[in-house]
Amino acid sequence: xxxxxxxxxxxxxxxxxxxxxxxxxxTLRDNADVVAKIYDKKAAEEKSAKLSAMVRLQNSRLxxxxxxxxxxxxxxxxxxxxxxTMEKVFGKSIHxxxxxKSRIMEFPNAGWDFxxxxxxxxxxxxxxxxxxxxxxxxxxxxxxxxxxxATVMLIDCDSFQINDSGYKYLCEVGVMTHQPPEFQNISTFxxxxxxxxxxxxxxxxxxxQLLFMGRHPFSGRYLxxxxxxxxxxxxxxxxxxxxSAKSRLMEQPPNAISINALPQEVFLLFERAFMQELRPKAQxxxxxxxxxxxxxxxxxxPFHKYYEELGxxxxxxxxxxxxxxxxxxxxxxxxxxxxxxxSAILKEIRSVEGPVExxxxxxxxxxxxxxxxxxxxxxxxxxxKRILSLFVAVTGIVxxxxxxxxxxxxxxxxxxxxxxxxxxxxxxxxxxxxxxxxARGAFNDIDNQLNRYINEWYSAASDKKFNKAKSDLLKxxxxxxxxxxxxxxxxxxxxxxxxxxxxxKFLDSFRIYDAKIEKINHTRKATLQSYGIETAAxxxxxxxxxxxxxxxxxxxxxxxxxxxIESRFVFNPNQGVDRFQLAEIHxxxxxxxxxxxxxxxxxxxxxxxxxxxxxxxxNELMQKIENALKEYAQAEANLKCxxxxxxxxxxx
Length: 652
Hints:
- A hairpin with a 5-residue loop joins strand 3 and strand 4.
- The strands form five sheets. The chain has a six-stranded antiparallel beta barrel. A three-stranded antiparallel beta sheet has the order 7-8-9.
- It has three domains: 2-16 and 25-87; 92-289 and 300-322, Orthogonal Bundle (Transferase(Phosphotransferase), domain 1), CATH 1.10.510.10; 370-509 and 576-652, no CATH class.
- The radius of gyration is 42 Å and the shape is elongated.
- The protein has helices at 45-57, 94-98, 100-106, 112-131, 196-211, 230-235, 264-275, 282-293, 314-322, 342-351, 373-403, 407-459, 464-481, 483-496, 498-508, 522-530, 541-544, 552-566, 579-601, 603-643, and strands at 2-5, 10-19, 23-28, 34-39, 69-74, 81-87, 92-93, 144-146, 152-154, 162-164, 167-169, 221-222, 250-251, 296-298, 305-307.
- By secondary structure, it is of the alpha+beta class.
- 50% of the residues lie in helices and 10% in strands.
């Protein structure tokens, strides 16, 4: 096939590399680094003018990050535009990177830090396009290609909105799962002028899908009535991973990484992108993601890089819940370079002596004390009043009998004596109540505190923590000795299930994203992806039943699609256990071995630390208990002193 360049030079095309909705991509006979796109239909006048403008506007900043048109192609000299040439793009579509299963096959050396690096480079590419006044427009999972060094190349540039000295050649297409809320209720993109702020929404979606490994930010469980498709969720700002998601009746899918796994700076960028009208610019993402790249740490899995301020690895947690691996590193089998002698380690662990048996503590009656001066003074005062009261009462009675006063006069004398005694009693009543209340309050406070110390003595100061830690270490040593047998059993199980594994691998090669399944459009595919359903192997009624919007009709369509694929499977009994499966078994055993070695190596130090901590706790608690016993004895003596010192009103 021969075409002409804009300068009338002959350009020879050879093989078809791929095809799309508008045309086909061809290799060039005389230039392996350049390819050509030829449209199926003759380009309209506006399209021709747009491509000519793009050729004129190409520069050294745009070419490294995009498949920007190099020159227009014509069916005859000075004829109409039928296509264009562009740099050959290497790499693979971005969705093959952020989807776990395809990543394992297509990007076997990629860890989470690679996804983060790619996200930053994607933002850089968007920033360059926006720098020159252009808008990508049709942001989606298929127009960014990623190379093995995380380099990003934007494709389908002929659909961009191009700014040519103020005149705008529009982008008239768009995938709604990556379009902002203001575009969700339109019927066509024709005539709509876009802005960089619209691109910034789609950029944030792609960054989210990279960092959250295929999950869509607006796909989740709707807690209200009816369905909540992604397009409606976008329009209503129902960001599933927002801290305010529950108030918007949204709940994130199960086994997804929490938004709290990211630093606040990055999280707030997502909140702005999905909840506000003015979204973060591409350069803001570059700065934030580059900063995050400097704050990563790795767990025992070298591909699990995560934010350094987190206590535990969120990727390990997801892998554990899902029972799958998120990153393929079968070629990187961790191994220990140190000599590990399990017998010597066990001897060290057994040799560590724990705290001696918990000694008894003194009883509450072990310490005696005298009342405080304040209470002794009060008691003496009460005794004086008591004597005076008795004296008055006795004097009155004796006076009646000795003086022989008439009955009426004697009765009055006794009444007067009793009144005098009552006055003495009443005058001391308020003080008595105050002193008793004070003494009882102090006694109750120290009694409660002493009881707390005693309870703590029998819990924190006991040897239970040490004994449990030692027992756990001995169990770990037992598990370590059984690792070889465990690995052999896993291989035997794999040999028994060769057919099942071959079928699984066969089904995993059919990706839902690339398939044509009745009624399963791009939005539903994104929803499936958000729930971890990527390939035909994942199609299971149990998993589909929990996905919002997937009733019997859509579920049956997916199951029928899987059945058709499964019917083409051919079992090969002569094929042994796949080498990747064996490598994965070896990796799992080695990971567990390294983990156990680390824990057992630190066992002796751990036990000594616990023993020392227990001794310190005992010393501190015993001192507190002894002090509290003294206070208890004092408070008890004060209370008894008050209780025995009440003024008494004699009854005649």
